[in-house]
Amino acid sequence: MKQFFLPINSSIRLSIYDFGGKGLPIIFCHFTGGLGKLWHSVITPLREKYHCFAFDARGHGDSSKPLELEWYDWNEHLSDLIAVIKYIRELTNSDCIFGVGHSFGSACLSQAVVKTQKYILWKRIALIEPILGPENFDFCKMKMSEIARKRRGYFESEEQIEAILRKKQPYKNWDNEAWNIYKKHGFINSKGCEYYLKCSPEIESYQYLYGNPSGWFERLKKINTPVLLIYGKNSELLPLSNYQLKQMKNAYLLKIPEVGHFFPQEKPSRLAEILKNWFS
After folding, report:
1. What is the pLDDT of residues 255-275, one digit of tens each?
2. Does residue 125 sit within a domain?
3. Rounded to whole angstroms, how far apart are CA atoms 204 and 193?
4. Can you give the pTM of this predicted structure?
5. In this predicted structure, what is the pLDDT of residue 138?
6. Is residue 132 part of a domain?
7. What are the backbone angles phi and psi of residue 28, rounded to the nearest 5°?
C-alpha cells in the first residue's frame, strides 16, 4: 500500500491510500470516526480485478484536522471527495470508476456521483447505509453530536484501549482484523505512552451537526449509475432504506442478516464477496 497526500488548500491536505490491484479503479469512502485503512479487509480480495483506493476525510486518520466547526460542513467534504476522484482519474488514466461508501462516506459518494457523472463513467456503486433522508426524518443530530463530544478521546496504553473500547458498541461486534487495524491506525501515539483518537470527540461531534445536508436526499434521484443499497437487518437505520430506494431510479436493496450499521467492519469478507458479484 502506498500513501499520498493531496493538498486541497492552504489548510487541508488529504491522506490517500493506493492499495494496488489490477483493472478499473474503485474508491472507498469511510464512516464518521473511521479511516481509509479500515477498508483493508474488504479490499484485499478485490485487488485481483480492481485497482483499489481509499482516503481519510478531513478530521480523520492522517488528513488535516482544523479545529473550527465550519470546516466540517458536509459540502466541504463533498468538494474534497471530488478532488480525490479527479486525482485517481489522473493517476489511473481512467474515465471509468466504481465506488463504495459507508454511512457518512456513502452520503458523500452519492453526491459526488451526481456532480461528476457528466465527465466520469461510474460503472456501478455500492452505498452502505447512507446518512440521507427526507427533512422530517429524525437523525437526532444534536443528541448524536453531544454523545460524540462526551466520548473518551485519550488512553494511557494499547491495553487500556482494548479493555475499555473492545467490549463496547460498535466495536464489540467487529471482525478481529478490522478491530486491530483501528487500534493500530486510529490513534495518535504520543511519547509512546499516550494514545489520542485521530478523529477527536470534538471533530466527530461537528460531523453529526452537519449530517443530512439540505438538498442531498432529493439529489439521489439524479444518480444515473446502478446502485446497490446495502443495509444490516439489525441496523436502527433500516427504515431509511425505503425512502432512499424510492428516490433512486436504478437501485437495488440488499438486507444483510445478523449485522448492524457497521457491516463492513463486522463481516468484511462477506461484503467483499457481495461487491465482487455486484461489480462483475
Report:
1. 999 999 999 999 999 999 999
2. yes
3. 24
4. 0.97
5. 77
6. yes
7. -115, 130
- The verdict on residue 41 lying in a domain is yes
Domain assignment of residue 25, yes or no: yes
Q: Is the pLDDT of residue 216 over 80?
A: yes
The pLDDT of residue 137: 84
Amino acid present at 96 = C
Question: Grid coordinates in use for 269?
Answer: 469478507
Phi-psi region of 271 (alpha: psi -120 to 50; beta: other; left: phi over 0): alpha
Our measurement of the distance from residue 143's CA atom to the centroid of its chain's CA atoms, rounded to an integer in Å, reads 21
Domain residues for the domain of 94 are 2-137+212-279
Q: How many domains does the chain have?
A: 1
Question: For position 130, which CATH number holds?
Answer: 3.40.50.1820
CA atoms within 13 A on the CB side of 25: 24
d(Cα 58, Cα 71) in Å, to the nearest integer? 8
Residue 3's Cβ-side half-sphere holds a number of Cα atoms within 13 Å equal to 10
